[in-house]
Amino acid sequence: MTWNANGILAKLPTFEVILNSLDIDICLLTETHLTKRNYLNLKDFKVYNAIHPGNTARGGSSLIVKNTIEHFEFAKIESNEIQMTIVQLNSLKQKINIGVAYCSPSFCIKKETFKSLLFESGDRFILGGDFNAKHLDWGSRVTLSRGKELRLAIRELGCNFHSSGNPTYWPTDNNKIPDLVDFFISKKVSSNFISIEDCYDFDSDHSAVILSFSEDIVKKPMKPILTNPSTDWLSFKLELDLKIDLSTSLNTVEELDKASEDFINIVQGSAWSNTKISEGRKVTTNYPEYIMNMVKNKRKARKRWNQSRDPEDKRVLNNLSQKLRREIKSLKENNLKNYLSNLSAEKESNYSLWKATKKLKKTVDHNAPIKKADGTWAKSDKEKAEIFAEHLAEIFKPTSGDSDVNVNDITNTYENSIPLVTRKELAKEIRGLNVKKAPGFDLITAQILNNLPKKAFLFLQLLINAAIKLRYVPSIWKVAEIIMIPN
Fold this sequence. Notes:
Blueprint: E1 2-4, H1 12-21, E2 26-30, E3 45-50, E4 61-66, E5 71-78, E6 82-89, E7 96-103, H2 111-120, E8 125-130, H3 145-156, E9 160-162, E10 182-187, E11 194-199, E12 208-213, H4 233-243, H5 253-273, H6 289-308, H7 311-341, H8 352-360, E13 370-371, E14 377-378, H9 381-395, H10 407-413, H11 423-431, H12 446-450, H13 454-470
Parallel strand pairs: 1-2, 7-8
Antiparallel strand pairs: 2-4, 3-4, 5-6, 6-7, 8-10, 9-10, 11-12, 13-14
Helix pairs in contact: 2-3, 4-5, 5-13, 6-7
C-alpha cells in the first residue's frame, strides 16, 4: 500500500489499526515529516526511513515491511528533491525490489533525474509513492511538465505504471479539484500479476492505493455473458421448449410482470446450462514446423549432455540453443513487418491501422471526482452512486398534474389504434438486430433471440401483445443503464 500521510506521528494509532485490518505486508509512506529525533516503531514490522536532508519535519518517506518477509535494505536517497528507500525481497521465486519515493513539488525535476531514480531502483522493481507528477496516461486530470518528464523516463527505461485512475489527492480547499499523484511504477513485472484498488479508510488529504502482487497471474473479473462458442444451441432450444408454458395467464399487469421476469430467467438459465464456462482467452502461437524440429533437437541434445557431461555435447547444445534463438527472433521480426505492412485505415481491413494505434496509446481512464451538496468530495464508488441516484431522482419525476392535457383522453383515443404484433413482424425485427451490439442488463443478445425455438418465440409474441392490450410495459423491460458523462 502507498499512502501520503502528511505527517504520520499524529495519525499513528489509526494507521496501525488499518494496517493490520487490511493485512498489508508492505506499506509505502510519503510525507512522513520524520526527523532523526522522531521515528516509527511498529510491532511486527521493520521500518526504513528516508528523511529530509535538512532534518526538518517535512517531506520524507518510510518503507514498512513485515518481519516475516525475508528482505534487506537495498538503497536510499535523501536529497532536497527526492527522499526514497528501497528494500530487496528474497522470499519470491525471483528477487524483486520494493521502493517508496516522495518527490517534492518545490523543485523542477527533469527526465534525467527521474531516470536516475528508476535506475537506482534496480533491474526488477515496484516503486510506489507520491511523485507529484500529473499525466493523462496514468489517469490524472491534466498533463503537466513534470508528468511529461516522468513519462519520458518511464518509456525510455522500459517501465510500466499502475493506477486505478481515481484521484488520490483531495485538497481541503473546495476551489481546488482533486487529482491523481500517488501511483506505482514497475519494471520487468507484468501487469497480469498485479491488481490495483483504492482505500479511503485514512483521515488525510490523500487516499491510499493498494497493489496486490502475486507469483501467479491475477485473473481480472470477466464481464458476465450467457453464451460463447461452446454453447450447444440444440440443447438450449430443447430445454426452453420443456420449460416454457404457453398457457400462462397474461390478463393483468401483475401477471405480465411475473411472466416477463420468468421468461428472462428461463432464457438465461437455459443459456448458462448449455454453455461451458470460459476461463478466458488462451493465446496460442503456431510456430512453423522447422522451429518445432529445432526445439526437439535441442531437447535431445540437452538430454544427451545431462547424461554424458561431455564438453563436446555441451558445445552442440549451446550451438543449437543460439541457432534457435536467432531463428525465433528472425521469425518474430518478419511477422511484425508483415503485420505493419498490412495495416490500413480503410474499411476493407476493418480500420486495422486505427485499432493498432489506439491499442498503443491506451491510457488509464480518469475517473472524475464529484462534489457533494455540502462541498466535500465523494471518493468511493458507493458515495458517487448515491449522489447520482439523488440527482436522477430529481430529474425523472412523474408528469405534473397541472397539465391541461387529460391522459385518459389520450388513452381512449389510441386504445384501439395499436395493432397487435404478428409472427412475421417479430421475426423480421429479430433478424434485423445487429449481432455485434451489446446486450442490456439481462445479457440476452441478438444471437440468443435468433436461436429461440418456436415455443419461446410464440411466448415472446404473447408478452408483447399482452403489453399492448394492457397498455403497460413490464417493469423488467424498463430497466436501463445510465452512463454519466463528465461535463
